[in-house]
Amino acid sequence: MTDAVRPPLPPFTEESARAKVQAAEDAWNSRDPERVALAYTEDSVWRNRDRFLTGRAEIRAFLADKWSRELDYRLRKELWAYTGHRISVRFEYEWHDADGRWWRSHGNEQWEFDANGLMSRREASINDVPIREADRRLH
């Protein structure tokens, strides 16, 4: 485990949960796998669609691969619910593939945090919908 602290810390209030969600949105929109991976515990466990990952190294590699394929990625997250050391969000993001086809991806995430505010577990369900570039909402 790491001794890093990543405020806001649990137990969450509405204000601190919203701040945590905004921090995650900002980090993911950086498309920087190193920066994003630092928000997770060294042994964080993920389910992302049909992929199961464990640990920062796997998360970092997953994100680098993701953003090499999901070009011009832009994300919005919204707080759905919170309690104690857990937060639930809904999100959508838009991106295009190497052939120029645009997609909007919709999903839900459940997050669990350790006492230092690092995410120890992430469960993500995501669906992709093809869109026309003219129909993009996120720029």
Automatic annotation (TrEMBL):
Coiled coil: none annotated. Gene3D superfamilies: 3.10.450.50. It holds the Pfam family DUF1348. It comes from the Bacteria. InterPro entries: DUF1348, NTF2-like_dom_sf. This is DUF1348 domain-containing protein.
